[in-house]
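Subject: DUF3429 domain-containing protein structure
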Amino acid sequence: MNKIPFWPKVLGFAGLLPPIAIIALGEMNNPATHSFSFWGVVYGMLILTFLGGAWWAFAAQKAKPPAGIMILSVLPSLIAFMLLVLSFSFMNLAPRLSGLVVGILILLSPLVDGWLHQRGMTPKWWMRLRLPLSLMLGTLTILAGHLA
């Protein structure tokens, strides 16, 4: 069965609403929303760490979890943390760069999902959900960084 169940589909696509709203608010000509679009990049970081957790959970189901995927599954959290520190520290990393890095990682994340899927570690419908969500969220994250 490749049909995406109702709740994963609805909740997955609802997860695109925060960055859309943040980008819209960031475009309003209001001092209260100055650089508000950066929070769209932070949201992308949160979702990227969530994906790492999903990869961990899928791999951990195996009696001998593959070391490579276990290591790969913690990288999103470490990268997101590093980008946050660099953004809010003396480094003052530009939101455009953070958004680009996070957006590209989200766009590439289906490669990991596909690896897991080929080994039967994900639900049969997983890739049908992950591909469009990754394409849309990756693009929104890059846009949020550009606008911040």
